[in-house]
Each structure stands twice: as C-alpha cells, then as structure tokens.
Amino acid sequence: MRTENIVNRRKILKAGGAAAALGSTGLLSAPAVWGQGKTGVLKLASVNSMSGGFARYGQEIQRGVELAIEVVNQKGVEIGGTRYTIQQQIYDDKTDASTEAKLVEKAVTNDGCTIVLAGLGSVLVKASIAVAQRLQFPMMTHWAQIDGVFAGQKGNPFLYGAMPPFSRYYTRISEMATKLDNPKIKKAVMITPNDELGVFTSRDYFPSDLKAAGIELAGVEFFPPKTQEYGPALDRLRRLNAEMLVINCYTPDILGVFKEMQAVNYFPPMIVVEAPTSLRDGIGDAINGVFAPSFWDPTLDKTKDNYIGTSRDFVRLYKAKYNQDPPDFVAACGANNVVIYAEVLKAAGKVNDPKAINEAFRALNAETFFSKVKFGDDGLNREGPVYPSQFQAGSAQPKLVYPPDVATAKPIHPYPGYKKG
Asked: Of 130, 195, 340, 381, which alpha carbon lies 20 to 30 A from 160's?
C-alpha cells in the first residue's frame, strides 16, 4: 500500500463511530438533520509529518485535525446551498521537504482534494509555498510561521498559516525577562540550527526584541542541522555568562541540547525553548522552570466559533476523545486549521473555484476557539497572540505566566537548577 493512502473506508467508518461516541457524551450537539437538501463531500488532504524528525508535532496535530473533522461533520459546512461533510486522506511526508511538495501537488492535481493542509515547520513548508504559487491553489499549513519564509509570497499569498508571525515569538518573553530579579536579566544568548529557523530568528527577530527590552545580545551560536553537535556551541555560549539562554530549535534538537546541558551542568538563570511539545516526556521534571512561547491555553476563552465553541470546549472534546487533557497547544492548532478552512469555504460560496477561495482567505476577519484570525499580505495570521508560558511542577501543560491579565501562575525564577557561579 502506498504510504500516503492511509485513510480508507474502514478509517472513515471508524471516525464516524468516534463522532457518534463524542455526541453521546453531550459535548457535541445532536447530529444534524440533513432533511431533503443537497449534500456533498469535501476531500481534505492532511500532508503531515507522521514519521521522521517532526513526528512528535505531526502526530499531535493530527489528533486535533481528526477531532475537528468529527465536530464539523456533526453540523456540516453549508456552501452555496449544499451541506458538505469532510473526508480526510493522510499523506506522510516523512519530515522531508521534497516529499511534502510532491504530496501536496498530488493531492491537488491527482486526488481532487478541495482542502489541503500542507505540512509543518517552515523549513519544510517553504517547498509547499512554491507549489501553491505555481498551481495558484489556496491552501493552509498545519503549522509554519517564519516571516522570512512567507515573505516570498508577500502581496500574492496562496499558502496561509493560522499561527502568528515568528517575528513575535520572543517579544513578550523578552519584555517579561526585564521584570525578573535575583538575578536580573542583563544579557541573553541563543543556540540555534544554521537553517531558516535559526538564520531569520537570530538576524531579524530576536535582536530587535532584546533591544526593545533593553537586554544585551551577548552571542548566537549555530549548530549544523541534523547533526546533534551541540557541545562546542554550548561551551562558547557558557563562557559569555549570560543570564538568559534561548534554545531556538525543534523538539528533537531541544531534547539533545538539554541533555548536553545536563551532562556539563550548564544551567543559566533563565532558559527559554522554542516549543513545549513532548519535552516533559523526554526530560522529566528537569523541564520545570523552563519558559516557552505559547499561542493557546484552555483558559483563553474570549474567542469562539460555531463548531468547537471556546478553548474550554476544545479541552472537553479532546478529553472525551483521547482520555487525557491536551499536553500543549499543538492539537488545538490542528483543529483550528479545519475550523478556519470551513469558514473560508462558506464565505467563498464555492468549492471548485480557487480564485474565490483565495479571495475568501484574504478577506477573512474572524475568530475561532483558538484565536482571532486575519491574514496579512504574506499569508500569516496577524491577529494571533503569543504568550510566555512556563513548565511548572504539578501541571502537564505549561502555565501562562505573562502578562498578568492572562497569567495562570507566577513565573518561577531563577531556573531551579541554576547555581550561582
């Protein structure tokens, strides 16, 4: 069996059964009554990293996608007088950019997919941006947000990302850092891969955030992608005696960097990681005290949509389906994309008109359970928030710690493993 053809009739029937089970919990409204109106099926392509280096992200995102499809199918998506349900097909890009691009093109040109969720991670999604532009076919990414990668389509976007621009990633964390004491945060350093994530962040985003906060950027050290050679970079950073260390890389490398830090006993007062996914599983309680940017939290319930409802509703739905609380924002991100796509197609009023659908993406000004949504001229969501969060004892999820009006806990400082040298 070809790897991309994972969803078959059995899986579709299984998904339908799961939706019925969710409905029986009372968390979903009763199944929609279709009456005598016209109905149809929307084919959704989920081009996702189900294996390879980004599998931790991809598998959790997929949980959110599948939950959202079940919820949306309860009501249906009314487009031009026809009520549609969504049928999913999963394509595993194996965390490879060229594979992702080929699968995205296949989903559009061969498989007739109306909805395309194209990969995750800007280092991969840049290939899908080129496909979307060449085909002039609007689509979304599961999760990518580096401004410099999206800049190539500025003024004429065809690939959209619901997450906020990466240029805002460390803005509030830097601002919060100035309010910490004993010790004060005066200097910061960063370790990052020598790829799009590292280059754009260290050159264009992080320095301006630190400058605005009045913190000195003491140094940036790069490591070669996919090599796990962290020791030399960490050694050079350690000698700079900065109070704040930012580990700007994806989960597999974060785990590697942190374990190297444990081996050499290097723990500055403030440690920030790029993303929280699966870190507690890989590091254990040593992750407590580490900060991470967050885009969503169960307590952020001021926005809502007509399918999932609020953030608290999403948590109830997730727990009913998977028998656990969502470990972070990643599954919510996946569900959010499905809800946004449904709203865009409703606004477009057509399912086979890429021009109308793209215009609907560009005009969208809405909100979901996840956040407000309004795409900029580069395709990134300019209304998405970024909040500092922190791993703390007794909580599976990182807790929001800043600003005070959304915080669910006070920041712990310094990092518990820090020893004044």
From this structure: 195
Q: String of b and e for 46-57 (b: at least 16 CB within 10 Å)? A: bbbbbeebbbbb
Residues in the chain: 421
Give the tokens for residue 43. Answer: 């084919």
Q: CA quadruple 62, 64, 65, 71: dihedral positive or negative? A: positive
Nearest partner of 174 among 401, 388, 413, judged by Cα: 388
Nearest residue to 88 (alpha-carbon basis) of 41, 124, 56: 41
Q: Please state, as a whole number, how many other Cβ atoms lie within 10 Å of the Cβ of residue 118.
A: 33
Q: What pLDDT digit, counting tens, does each position of 62-121 carry?
A: 999 999 999 999 999 999 999 999 999 999 999 999 999 999 999 999 999 999 999 899
CA contacts within 13 A on the Cβ side of 209: 23
Side by side, the strands of the sheet bearing 387-390 are 216-223, 187-193, 244-247, 270-273, 291-294, 387-390, 399-400
Q: Are 340 and 139 in contact (CB under 8 A)?
A: no
Q: What is the dihedral of CA 264, 270, 276, 282, to 10 degrees?
A: 20
Write down all domains in the chain, each with its CATH number in brackets: 9-166+297-373 (3.40.50.2300), 170-273 (3.40.50.2300)
In this predicted structure, what is the pLDDT of residue 233? 96
Identify the pLDDT of residue 421. Answer: 56
> What pTM was computed for the model?
0.87
